[in-house]
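// run 5 | inverse folding | seed 20
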């Protein structure tokens, strides 16, 4: 097989002409991590289910909607509720599938996989007992479309809960989280992956579906515009990206910032660093 990652990226960009995307700056994402930590009560922050990625959904939705959640589920309600009257109103139709709602309700679901269900708990138990940790985790590389296919059941569950807990006058959003170690996706090196995705036909009552392909891609499907990439970057010549650890993606950096600012010291399965062993290089 010939070619390189650079060649694949170039072909991806050529195929992306006409793709919709929403871009926010580093400053906006940083501000989202700060305002969440300041706005939400400590007990609410501590109650977020890290294994399901609820904290990631809160961080990403706050950044792109430019609004802080006014309600977070602690007693059986919807996972996240945003007051859109506090948003600047830009791109809401792309992000939520409609621009006529005053509130948006999010249900967060994570795609099941052997890493978080088996390997991670076994590793945690071994660490707590001082025993030898599992030596390896094996995962099959799939396509981004395979990830979406695997998400169908979770989208359906989110849709049912939104129909029960929310109302038609609100934008209703299913937020799906997929862990890289459960389903490493072959498009992970491409800057834009929405052109590779097949059209989505979500259950009735869902206006938009957000998918976080942890650790590096966020996409949204909406009834108004189909698939769009949600990007993070510099919007001015002066703005530069933050320094972050080698082996981590940029969104992982902001997850770490949010966890620290919120005082959450529980381990997140999404906050990891990839290193290459068996070489002479550090």
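// decoded
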């Amino acid at each position: 097989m010939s070619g390189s990652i650079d060649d694949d990226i170039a072909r991806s960009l050529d195929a992306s002409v006409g793709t919709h995307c929403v871009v926010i700056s580093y400053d906006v994402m940083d501000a989202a991590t700060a305002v969440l930590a300041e706005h939400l009560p400590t007990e609410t922050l501590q109650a977020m289910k890290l294994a399901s990625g609820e904290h990631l959904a809160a961080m990403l939705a706050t950044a792109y909607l430019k609004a802080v959640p006014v309600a977070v589920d602690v007693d059986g309600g919807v996972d996240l509720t945003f007051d859109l009257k506090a948003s600047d109103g830009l791109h809401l139709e792309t992000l939520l599938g409609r621009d006529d709602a005053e509130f948006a309700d999010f249900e967060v679901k994570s795609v099941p996989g052997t890493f978080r269900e088996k390997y991670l708990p076994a590793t945690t138990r071994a660490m707590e007992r001082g025993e030898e940790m599992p030596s390896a985790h094996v995962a099959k590389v799939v396509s981004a479309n395979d990830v979406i296919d695997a998400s169908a059941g979770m989208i359906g569950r989110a849709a049912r809960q939104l129909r029960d807990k929310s109302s038609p006058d609100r934008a209703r959003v299913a937020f799906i989280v997929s862990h890289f170690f459960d389903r490493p996706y072959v498009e992970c090196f491409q800057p834009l992956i929405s052109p590779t995705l097949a059209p989505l036909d979500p259950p009735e009552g869902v206006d938009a579906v957000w998918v976080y392909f942890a650790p590096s891609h966020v996409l949204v499907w909406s009834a108004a515009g189909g698939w769009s990439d949600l990007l993070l970057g510099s919007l001015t010549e002066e703005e530069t990206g933050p320094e972050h650890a080698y082996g981590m993606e940029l969104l992982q950096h902001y997850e770490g910032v949010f966890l620290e600012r919120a005082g959450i010291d529980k381990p997140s399965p999404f906050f990891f660093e990839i290193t290459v062993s068996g070489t002479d290089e550090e």
